[in-house]
Specification:
4 helices; 135 residues; 2 domains; 82% helix; mainly alpha
Length: 135
Amino acid sequence: MNRVRLLLGALGVAAMTYAVYGSLTEDSEHAVGHGLFLVGVVIAHELVLMPIAIGVGWLIARWLPGWSRGAVAGGLYASAVVAAIALPFVLGVGRTIDNPSKFPLNYGRGLLIVLGVVWLAVAVVVLLRRRRVRT
């Protein structure tokens, strides 16, 4: 497992090195903006997302029984990924009045449907595990 972690870490460092190199060597008027965006993403990740994730993980470990922790943590993870992907669509980033076909669907409703399916699956798994623990 340590080799896999080392390999994944090396791939992450290589990807970030490539991103920084590309941002610094790009012949564009947006190079400074790209660099600031990259710094902002790192700061937001470390100062906002990680403390929230650590706090939620602590709450799960503190208040939920062991047989439900994995399913709830997986549901929270899936919800966060789906919400992060859907957020620009829900907010309508890039929407223009003159092109209504750019965002033709109700993305907020779609996000709620997907989250409902995720948490329905979590509820089924938790109920099955609870049943197995009791018997």
